[in-house]
Write a structure and sequence with these properties.
It is a single chain. With 379 residues, this protein is an alpha/beta fold. Helix content is 16%, strand content 22%. A 15-stranded mixed β-sheet has the order 2-1-3-4-5-6-8-10-12-14-16-18-20-22-24. It has a six-stranded parallel β-sheet with strand order 13-15-17-19-21-23, with no helix packed on it. Strands 7-9-11 form a three-stranded parallel β-sheet, with no helix packed on it. The radius of gyration is 25 Å and the shape is elongated.
């Protein structure tokens, strides 16, 4: 199936396959008026108001960026000829996720002429370790930018930090991208609208408290933070400032070299749905008492595996939405409680391996209606 082109005006919407639109655009106006197969599409377009938005949702396997660039140039030119009366025509969304695009992209690409673009997804392609073009600075209307796992390489350009309307930014990589100059502090200081920031496996030069301060001071609207840094070492405790993000729903800080004890305040985040602090082998101490006063009621995913936590298994009686609970490969100990797993009707995955629990597994655990996988130590 080819590209879907979305024509949208307020609450009205229609969608056509690119092949259908291209067929229409290849006709002259006179031919179009005489083409019975195209009249319904023409009526749809004419009925839309003067200002409308075009969404290019997916392109059918443009295997090289050069082909895609030619596609955009030809399509855009034809579209402009066809709707010349519409002065404020916009291309607002372009989704090319996993379209097997290969090769580089440079600053002269016609992509960067789409100045009304609000959403751009180039994830899961192969740009051959070329640097992210500085010409992204031209796309000042972007609110969503996803360049994850597209094999960009080198330093992330400072120009991305000028896209001040961004709400979601995903630069997750395969150990190819760096935030050194600009550093994290310089990079996020203008991105005050960011709600979701994904920096999986991006090499961040900041350590200790230097990585937490810019996030705390510059991103007041943060809801999702994902920083998994294989081969990096933040060498810092879990920052208590995270509790200031009242709308934080997901916190992924696995494999970051976090150390010290886990601050109790983290478990007072009422909106938190995902907490992943796995694989920080010097993150230690007893897990705090999970509050019983209505906190963590939204928590659905908990992964504290491969750390050095000690003490008893934490109680999560207020977190009835849990679907995933992984406490494996710690030094937790103590007996099971027969009421510890009661009421968790959504819990599907439990991993308690490589701890030192004692006693029998409570029967209430085996009665959980959604349970699909239980991994436990031998008793």
């Amino acid at each position: 199936m080819g590209a879907f082109i979305y024509f949208r005006s307020d609450m009205k919407a229609d969608r056509l396959l690119f092949s259908e639109v291209h067929c229409i655009l290849s006709l002259s106006v006179q031919q179009l008026l005489c083409a019975e197969s195209a009249i319904s599409h023409l009526n749809t377009i004419i009925l839309l108001r003067r200002n409308f938005i075009i969404y290019v949702i997916s392109v059918n396997s443009p295997h090289h960026w050069g082909e895609l660039q030619a596609f955009l140039e030809n399509w855009w030119g034809e579209m402009m000829d066809f709707v010349g009366a519409f002065k404020n025509t916009l291309i607002a969304g372009l989704d090319l996720n996993n379209e097997t695009i290969s090769g580089g992209i440079d600053n002269s690409s016609s992509l960067f002429s789409l100045r009304f673009l609000e959403s751009l997804n180039l994830a899961d392609n192969d740009f051959n370790s070329t640097q992210i073009p500085s010409a992204f600075i031209n796309l000042t209307s972007l609110t969503y930018l996803n360049l994850s796992y597209s094999v960009f390489g080198g330093q992330i350009p400072i120009e991305l930090s000028q896209l001040t309307r961004l709400v979601t930014l995903d630069l997750s990589a395969f150990n190819n991208l760096k935030l050194e100059n600009p550093n994290l502090n310089m990079f996020v200081q203008n991105l005050t609208q960011l709600a979701e920031l994904y920096l999986d496996d991006v090499e961040i030069s900041a350590q200790g408290y230097d990585w937490g301060q810019p996030i705390s001071s510059s991103l007041p609207n943060l809801r999702v933070l994902m920083i998994r840094l294989s081969g990096n070492n933040l060498n810092a405790p879990v920052p208590e400032f995270l509790v200031n993000f009242k709308n934080l729903t997901a916190l992924h800080l696995s494999s970051c070299g976090l150390n010290g004890a886990l601050p109790e305040k983290i478990f007072h985040l009422q909106t938190l749905q995902i907490l992943d602090l796995s694989n920080n082998p010097i993150l230690n101490g007893s897990l705090p008492e999970f509050p019983q006063n209505g906190k963590l009621t939204e928590l659905a995913y908990l992964d504290l595996s491969y750390n050095m936590f000690t003490g008893a298994m934490p109680w999560l009686q207020m977190s009835k939405n849990l679907t995933h609970k992984d406490l494996s490969f710690n030094n937790l100990s103590g007996p099971f409680s027969f009421t510890q797993f009661e009421g968790f009707v959504n819990l599907a995955y439990i991993d308690l391996q490589s701890n030192s629990f004692t006693g029998r597994i409570p029967s209430s655990l085996f009665g959980l209606p959604s349970l699909k996988q239980l991994l436990q130590q031998p008793f």
